[in-house]
């Protein structure tokens, strides 16, 4: 790869849970880097982070941080993306944004490489990375959509606390210790850091991820509904979501009911899933094999199992879809997009 | 209540998690007891259990244990019920069975008092208590069924480990301590005690409850599908279930999508749920109030929230239904049935 074009790369939110995984993947994938700039809030600036044997110092992200940057990966929250991405674009960077800031912007492609990588060619400096719970679902459903069409999706999620950041992981582990010791959980972060009411997550499940909208759905549920249509490029797909936080550290699980437009052979469905890029079929009920969050943690793939024909609707299927929310759900999907930009033949 | 008829009562499985709750409820409800016989396997016989200031000794359950018994509550597993209930019936007892042994027997009423208490009059010595995850769902859906009709239910569950017995609770707590201390979880009981493959439940979710059937559904899922139709007395209701074990001690949660036969006013739906017997509506998104397993634990009611009109189907609703699986899901439903037998005016 010695004659490969090298890029000036910036990672914004380098000290966060997703930023950490992005850096690990950039090193592991030997991403063609000319220079690497680690950016964060003023509070984390000065942190030293090892990268391929060097020690890099995190700098405070400012509008001028992006001078000379060609590819910028953002995972520091929607407010940071909204404030800084226009400046990064002005400096000529292609921004891959992990936040909700630009996902539904009609000018911004919303990309899961296994589904719609062709959309990156239309970008105007920003490519949005979808919500974690959406990415794994559309990656698994894409081969079924292509073969049979999809009319309706009804999904209930079992989402890991790492989706709410490192603080939520610490809170869940701390609460678990407290409850095991017979003490109060004293919730402090979840379900939503910026909202006043807190609920125990240790040994509990919480049917709220992100804020409630006027229609009674949460923002997380609306993300799954809207982003699925945009990524699939098909507004006719009807989607219903119920998003639930569970006391798991890494790995979102999803119970998905999907109505296809045609009747299907269940063997063909399994074969399509087994062959799909980025998808691993784990489906052997006789030997009690199905995807588990603990098995998916630390792996890039989307795992699918419990594949079964619905008993009441011959065009419907039930699936169980699991993936590491920090990897395919965030860092890995972003690095995949960066590879498609940097290495056109990828 | 001094002139009340008193009954000779037996509790089979008195030392188990459900038996313990049955005894607590019989005492708390001041059930009209003439004599109380506590029965169990040979292994637990001899255990002393306090009841209303007395100390009772558990005896081994045998076919002749039921001589003179008028009401027998069984929660010692399907095999014990199949072996002993015919003898209890022969001795003239009315048996309330918490196991799966007789639920789908056409001669046996399957009863949730809020839904079909009228069915107990047809019993031939056996009344079956439905599966925990079914009971809470049908209790919540009954008022909607009566008012609008129901054509389809799609449910994904978040089921507590106590549904698999005291050993599963201990296993989940032990595994949690091990994982928090950086050790292996060493699974030993779940997902199904009698099957060879074990999976970690601490900080994980397992999409298997009970054994797999040839159609790819688990027995737990098939119970929800079949029992719902039988309890509602309506085979036309289409039901799909995905049953998942979560690391919660007490309280099953359910994400339920339900298609009604008519369009509805969402305010009327909430009013019907608020007025339904045995149901408590907890639905205030603005103040982040919705049912939680930790709040439902130790309470008899079924809690319903996250009530919202589906965005893609004007006849469909989404609900979040939570109840203590050992209480309304088992012991309380059984004691309710016993009260209807013992106290006809109840």
UniProtKB/TrEMBL annotation, chains A, B:
Catalytic site positions: 132 (acyl-thioester intermediate), 252 (proton acceptor)
Entries under CDD domains matching the protein: ASADH_C_bac_euk_like, VcASADH2_like_N
GO MF annotation list: aspartate-semialdehyde dehydrogenase activity; NAD binding; NADP binding; protein dimerization activity
Residues annotated as signal peptide: none
Gene Ontology biological-process entries: 'de novo' L-methionine biosynthetic process; diaminopimelate biosynthetic process; isoleucine biosynthetic process; lysine biosynthetic process via diaminopimelate; threonine biosynthetic process
Binding residues annotated for phosphate, in chain numbering: 103
Positions annotated to bind NADP(+): 15-18, 43-44, 162-163, 325
UniProt pathway annotation: Amino-acid biosynthesis; L-threonine biosynthesis; L-threonine from L-aspartate: step 2/5; Amino-acid biosynthesis; L-methionine biosynthesis via de novo pathway; L-homoserine from L-aspartate: step 2/3; Amino-acid biosynthesis; L-lysine biosynthesis via DAP pathway; (S)-tetrahydrodipicolinate from L-aspartate: step 2/4
EC number in record: 1.2.1.11
Domain Semialdehyde dehydrogenase NAD-binding: 8-123
Residues the entry annotates as binding substrate: 159, 245
Reactions that this protein is recorded to catalyse: L-aspartate 4-semialdehyde + phosphate + NADP(+) = 4-phospho-L-aspartate + NADPH + H(+)
Alphabetized UniProt keyword annotations: Amino-acid biosynthesis, Diaminopimelate biosynthesis, Lysine biosynthesis, Methionine biosynthesis, NADP, Oxidoreductase, Threonine biosynthesis
Pfam families, A to Z: Semialdhyde_dh, Semialdhyde_dhC
Family in the record: Belongs to the aspartate-semialdehyde dehydrogenase family.
Subunit structure: Homodimer.
Protein task: Catalyzes the NADPH-dependent formation of L-aspartate-semialdehyde (L-ASA) by the reductive dephosphorylation of L-aspartyl-4-phosphate.
Name of the molecule in the record: Aspartate-semialdehyde dehydrogenase
Organism this protein belongs to: Cohnella candidum
Lineage: Bacteria, Bacillati, Bacillota, Bacilli, Bacillales
Gene from which the chain derives: asd
